[in-house]
Amino acid sequence: MSKIYRLEHIEKVFLSGDDKVEVLKDITLEINTGESVAIVGASGSGKSTLLHIMGALDYPTKGRIFFKDKNIGLFSEKQKACFRNQKIGFVFQFHHLLPEFSVLENVAMPGIIRGLSKSRIFSLAKEALSMVGLEEFSRPVSVLSGGEKQRVAIARAIVLEPEVILADEPTGNLDEANGVKVGNLLCHLNKELGTTLVVVTHNHTLASLMQKTYQLKLGELHAL
Ligand SMILES: Nc1ncnc2c1ncn2[C@@H]1O[C@H](COP(=O)(O)OP(=O)(O)OP(=O)(O)O)[C@@H](O)[C@H]1O
């Protein structure tokens, strides 16, 4: 089975005034292509920090992180931006959609950033929206329910067929019923499209849907 991620002895220290906060101490982790993985842990244990490092939104203080044998730590800022746009689909707790834009325009955004033609972008966006079960493309995002917004965010994450979805508390802002729907949708995409899925969550039901679960505790990662 091929590895999509290899993290070697990752450490992350934040400086807060004169204090040093050692958030990640010695994280070693391998993730197979197509795998689904949950990362759980107490609030402040470093889950988001680890996910940000995996998405090249942040960098480790020490250690190396490889994406399919490419050392992300050696990427220039431009290469990192390209990596994020081409390989990763991000889903956040607070979806970060553009409220005044329509559902279709929001999902089209990554394609616009990549510079695809308008007709290609909109056909990809419609395909992604049908995968998440949304049909009304022209409504502004501001009028949608929380569950619908999260489905739009997932459509936006998958629109360019990323190799990995990195989801940070994707159900954190939803009621239980919508949380279950979003969890099932992410698992469906993982199985149908073979997209590797890494989910950071407090939600044990969501974590139980993943093939593997790791817990972050005192800066260390343990398989559960
Ligand atoms: N940019 C930063 N500067 C200083 N400290 C930071 C920074 N980002 C995160 N931290 C600290 O790192 C620790 C881990 O934060 P992180 O957001 O990764 O935790 P988490 O496990 O995702 O928490 P939660 O479940 O509450 O979202 C926290 O103590 C946080 O205050």
Automatic annotation (TrEMBL):
Single Gene Ontology MF annotation: ATP binding
PROSITE patterns from the xrefs? ABC_TRANSPORTER_1, ABC_TRANSPORTER_2
ATP-binding recorded as keyword? yes
Check the record and name the Pfam families matching this protein: ABC_tran
Q: Does the keyword Lipoprotein apply?
A: yes
| Superkingdom of origin | Bacteria
Q: Which SMART domains match?
A: AAA
Q: Which family does it belong to?
A: Belongs to the ABC transporter superfamily. Macrolide exporter (TC 3.A.1.122) family.
- InterPro entries according to UniProt: AAA+_ATPase, ABC_transporter-like_ATP-bd, ABC_transporter-like_CS, ABC_transpr_LolD-like, MacB-like_ATP-bd, P-loop_NTPase
Cellular component terms (Gene Ontology): membrane protein complex; plasma membrane
Q: Which UniProt keywords apply?
A: ATP-binding, Lipoprotein, Nucleotide-binding, Transport
Gene3D superfamilies from the UniProt entry: P-loop containing nucleotide triphosphate hydrolases
Please report the stretch or stretches of sequence annotated as the ABC transporter domain. 5-224
Give the protein name, as stated in the record: Lipoprotein-releasing system ATP-binding protein
Task: Name the PANTHER family on file.
Answer: IMPORT ATP-BINDING PROTEIN, LIPOPROTEIN-RELEASING SYSTEM ATP-BINDING PROTEIN LOLD
